[in-house]
Amino acid sequence: MKLYHLRSGPLRVNTYFLVNELNQAVVIDSGENYKKVKQVESECGFKIEAVLLTHAHFDHAGNAKKLQDDGAKIYISELDAPKLLNEQNLSSDFGREFDYLTADYTIVDGQTLNVCGIDIKVIATPGHTDGSVCFLVGNMLFTGDTLFLESVGRTDFITGDRNELVKSVKKLFALDGEYTVYPGHEDFTTLSHERKYNAFVDYD
Ligand SMILES: [Zn+2]
């Protein structure tokens, strides 16, 4: 399996492409910029079969409908799925266009998905939104807007909850072993770095 990365859109969202031996790609957070995602797809020679969303905010999910129309299956938590159809994706607050969509699959905490032969564990991490999740793939942890390099996600948006976020971050810190952390914005990090240096390690 190969991992490709794209940072795009006005909010510089990280899109990740997990590509198997058959050049089938599972995308984590497709972002807003459809053209750039399609450009990566054609330049790297894979086909996007699925899009997994860490949460429904427009900057992570804004182009999901177009990718769905191209044949990709869309996965999101059952709590955030309705936000793909209402204003809780924040697109109107930010003056961004959003093509509403109904996800193909809803996912829940603890579930292990097998998509294109890739095992992906779902970890519910409410706080940034009530339905935010992280995805665990081998030693890679995709954290959306829950955990960033030495920081955590905002909790002042609708369905956000600071106490829940603190619990979720601690849940990630408590995972056994070492993981590379691939967040929804900004730079990559590792879980051991965050266990040491993230300001929220001692937050109570
Ligand atoms: Zn967000």
Features:
Metallo-beta-lactamase, Chain A; six-stranded mixed sheet; 204 residues; alpha/beta; binds zinc ion; 5 helices; globular; 14 strands
Describe the structure.
This protein has helices at 34-44, 58-61, 64-69, 162-173, 191-197; strands at residues 2-8, 13-19, 24-28, 47-52, 73-77, 105-107, 112-115, 118-124, 133-137, 140-144, 147-148, 151-152, 180-183, 189-190. The protein is globular. It is built from five helices and 14 strands. The protein has a single domain (2-202), classed as Metallo-beta-lactamase, Chain A (4-Layer Sandwich). It starts with a strand and ends in a 7-residue tail after the last helix. The chain is an alpha/beta fold. Strands 1-2-3-4-5-6 form a six-stranded mixed sheet. It binds zinc ion. Zinc ion (ZN) binds next to loops.
Any idea of the CATH class?
Alpha Beta
Estimate what percentage of residues fall within beta strands: 25-35%
Which parts are unreliable, with pLDDT below 50 for 5 consecutive residues or more?
none
CATH superfamily: Ribonuclease Z/Hydroxyacylglutathione hydrolase-like
Mean pLDDT level: 96
Count of individual beta strands:
14
CATH topology: Metallo-beta-lactamase, Chain A
